[in-house]
Amino acid sequence: MTGNPLGTALVTGASRGLGAFMADRLAADGWQVALNYAHDTAGAGAVADRITARGHSVTLARFDVTDEDQVRTALAELGPIAVVVNNATGPQPLLTVDRLTWDDHLNQLRFFIKAPLLILQAVLPDMKAAGTGRIINVGSEVTDLGNPEMSHYVSAKAAMHGLTRSWARELGPFGITVNTVEPGWIPVERHAGSTEDEYASYLTTVALPHMGAPSDVADVVAFLASADSRYVTGQRLAVNGGKTMT
């Protein structure tokens, strides 16, 4: 499918990993994908090439999601956005509590609270005018697991779902839904060094007897972006084979 009959879907942090699969799936569904990245021009270009090679529509959108001026300028150039997938993230170092600083917390909050807020404020007037919109926040199963040495990351992801719940109630009257997708351990490029023993250990805690694939997450994002999810808002959808159950 070519063109953009469904409108524009912004996927942040889409030059690799789960974001790249989300962008690919949304484009295949007929969205004009705005593929955001901050630094990896080569990676973003490769993802865009794969999408266009299949006849789908994509636009590269380079900007820092934590920079107010860059967000405002870039989204004004892209025009009305119908779907936002807040997937961008920064480094996630392991830090014991005795080494943790407030700046470590702020580094996570910039991506999981500040960036979604800046983007929402930029796209909200057009969504309100259209009477519809989809905000999809990419969370993590760690908010239920409470992983040690990750309290800065875990607390920021938990706060991100707090946005989801409050925004869902506030924006529902305007036809805008807000949901959180919570992936489990889904192997992508950055997990290339993981061992078979590590995978086997993880699988002992999962209800389904196999590791998830990036497409499993992308499929759920595509559902939440679609008209089929019109009566779903304020929810957390865990995509982790049943490792966590709510």
From TrEMBL:
| Pfam family of the protein (one) | adh_short_C2
Checking InterPro entries in the record gives: NAD(P)-bd_dom_sf (IPR036291), Sc_DH/Rdtase_CS (IPR020904), SDR (IPR050259), SDR_fam (IPR002347)
Query: Does this entry carry the keyword Oxidoreductase?
Result: yes
**GO terms of biological process kind:** monocarboxylic acid metabolic process
Superkingdom of source: Bacteria
Sorted alphabetically, the keyword list is:
Oxidoreductase
On whether Oxidoreductase is a keyword of this UniProt record, the answer is yes
- Give the GO molecular function terms: oxidoreductase activity
Looking up PROSITE patterns in the UniProt record yields: ADH_SHORT (PS00061)
The UniProt similarity line reads: Belongs to the short-chain dehydrogenases/reductases (SDR) family.
The identity of this protein, by name, is: 3-oxoacyl-ACP reductase
What is the organism of origin for this protein? Acrocarpospora corrugata
Upper classification of the source organism reads: Bacteria, Bacillati, Actinomycetota, Actinomycetes, Streptosporangiales
